[in-house]
Amino acid sequence: MDIIVCVKWVPDTSEADLAIAGGAKDIKKDDLDHDINDWDRFAVEEAVQIKEKVGGKVTVVSVAPEDAEEMLRESLARGADEAFHLWDDAFEGSDGYAVATILAKFIKDRPFDLILTGTLADDDCSGQVGGMLAAMLGVPNAVLVSSIEFLDRKVKFKKELEGGLYEAVEMDLPAQLSVATGLNEPRFVSIRAVRKVASAEIPVIDCGELGLDESQVGPQGSKIQVEEVAMPPEGEGAEIIGGGAEEAAGRLAEILKEKGGIG
Amino acid sequence: MTLLEPADVPIAGIPAYIVALIILTLALCFFAFVMYRRIDLLRRGMPDPRFSDIGERIKLALVYGFGQYRQPRYLGAGVLHILLFAGFMILSLRSLTLIGLGFSPDFHLPLLTGSAAFAYEVLKDYVVLMVLAVCIICIVRRAVFTPARYDHPGGKGHGSEAYVILGLVSALMITDMVFDGSALKQNGAQGHALFFPAASIGALFMPEKGSQALNYLHIGGYWAHILVFFGLLNFLPISKHFHVITAIPNVFFSNLNKGAIKPVECGVDDWMELPECGVGHFERFTWKHILDFYSCADCGRCSDNCPATTVGRTLSPKMISIKARDFAYEHYPIFGAEKDRSKIQFTGDVVTGDEIWACTTCGACEAECPILIEYIDKIVDMRRYLIDQGDVPQSLQKPMQQIKKKGNAYGGSKAKRAAWTKDLEGVEVRELKKGEAADLLFFVDSCGSFDPRIQEISKSFARILTASGSDFGILGADETDSGNEIRRLGEEGLFEQVCQKNIAAFLERDFKEIVTFDPHAFNTIRNDYPEKFPIVHASQLMARLVRNGRLSFTGDYVQGKVVTYHDPCYLGRHNGIYEDPRFVLGRIPGIRLREMERSRSRSFCCSGGGLLLWYENEQERERMGEVRVKMASEVGAEIVVTACPFCLINLEDAIKTTGNEGKMEVVDLVELVDRSLGTHARE
Ligand code: SF4
Ligand code: SF4
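The joint structure predicted for all components is written out below.
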């Protein structure tokens, strides 16, 4: 089973003070730490677990700036066999469509049975790349996938639906699946594990080497233009519940009932 | 007719000395072979340098080995054990003499002649009776009043072996009484009962003086004694009673590096290059750790004090020893080929991940074990293996990743490490830049920098340092998590990174001493860091400031309330600091200090600090902090004082979940001192 996993390098905004960058088109990212998109971590783990079960090769690829090498190396330490780093200054400002274009170009001439991505990215939550990539490569796609199994040249999996329902799906290979979080328990990658792959080569491939024209990538190759990024207006109606435990619990239950949280 | 002596009576036509020689040779050969096999396995264990500081080691052997120093921590069982041990020591001379009597009726040990021999005989006779009595009490105690700590949660034990041993020892005493009693009956004069009570009791059951039966009993008693003696000797190394032989060497070789964790592998330059990191296979334990397994007496004192066992986690430290010894005896048998070990992975299959992650490294087990068996290093070694396999509970992965990325488990950015200093009124906290100097370097650690509750302790401490006129500064953005828990969770690579960062930051600044209120940081900087820096815990510094008259207190905050002090594991057990916090507390006017039943080295862990705050255990019935809060309420405490930020958090939670809110509060010693400062105006 040859599996290609596409991963994204995203800023960690959880504990940070967010600020809007000049031009109001993005947040200020300079002093934010970046890491692999959490959804993609599950995708890499899933690919490695599949390989451990049925054999094959796992390739990890990302369209990301230089610093992201760390994430690719960590994926190798997790058990991927090779990693490719697609980057060119011209890629800066690519939207989901342009990123899918770059990835499709890279993948097109490679053998693969399965392409895995996370369903969403922690930063923009667009959930576009997987589906568009599948379309560009002409393979079927599904999102929020878990419990992946194989049968001959078919893949069977579960797909999350609204309201906690699952749909069992069977699909021909090759296919592209966008995974849900929690479909596995990602292993821990220690410093020693990373050091073991410290000398593995991670080729950096630029626009020209991919055979892409600069007009196909970056803002020019994008379909979406961001108008404005803004902080949410300061909310109203937050209520700090005081009093003893019983009193507070009572008030909380009241609110939940009022707002329809509980029946 | 006089009584014939054993050496004079041939057995089945074979001269007695030949029989004695055959028994002696066979028994010793068998014993030597068994010991050879056991030692052979030790030699296959990993290296462990335990031959340094011989003077210190001899002292340990005298105090904990021969002196049985820890036995009375369990008073009843301890006294019985001391009596039994003393009996063994005294009767060993008797045993040697008896072996010699098989060769010659006049045999005696050198120097043991004349009145010395008589005195020894008298002593021995009393000791025989005492040992017999102790054995009977032990048998009854085991059978009727079985203490809960003899249980074997999650495995099988060897309780029945105890009866075998007690039975054999009793048989030794009884055969001795028969042997001496028959002689007394034959030759004895009146009044001997006072000198030879055991023999006299034996004589009561003996047949007629001068009868053939008396002769038979004398000779039979002798040979029975010899057979039981060698049977016992050879039973020891194949049972849980191996400790009779190994306990004293085990104490002699015990760990002298208190508070520190062992290196991944001793004598290896680059552990990262090792094929296996930590302990996955049995032979990856160090020889001393295997000796620990041999030595465990199954007494259960460790597990009886283990907080993880208490709250129902699957961990019971004694079971680690028992399972490991069973594994060793099964897979490396005395006779026959070694068993195939390829299908079974020691770490994971024999000792499970659930057990391994459940440990808080509180050290209660090690503080209790009468023969100084170690657990923390073994558990850390097994964690190192699991970490290397990527097999880590999800709840611990995220905080570890955060430390790797940001230098703290809270996910806060490095730049904001000193943000807590901003809203301090009237107190200036200097961030020491490279090359700058201060008397005291205040190491705040991640909790004091990022956890809003613990930031309050940081502020209190800054106020105390200011009030006492101390010249101090912090590292600010150049400070990294101390790494105490990272090391104890087995992520050695990450520990090396954080400790090197801190060491570099220390070296770039000029200070006389590091001070921290977090015992975890205190412990790792003091005991684990390869570079040594002078460091004190806040409680020590405050005690010093009080002694120097630079701090004085009012009783305004305490107001005569009942206060109890909870000893944090990493301050007390791991670093022996019990008195300084109590000294500081004692100086607060009007304080009513009451000790909990479990205090000092028996303190009960509140569930661990650092990264363990994130650890979620699914098996526990209740939280350790809740157990501890109940102990505090038993002494009527209104204020629980601790000297560790993590204890504070755990206990504060537990006060809420046990419904003690409003009845009891927990404060850090630093906060209590801040609130009681004489010169310090409270808002
Ligand atoms: S260190 Fe504490 S938690 Fe760990 S096994 Fe020993 S007593 Fe139990
Ligand atoms: S480790 Fe020590 S305390 Fe625990 S059962 Fe064994 S001998 Fe007893």
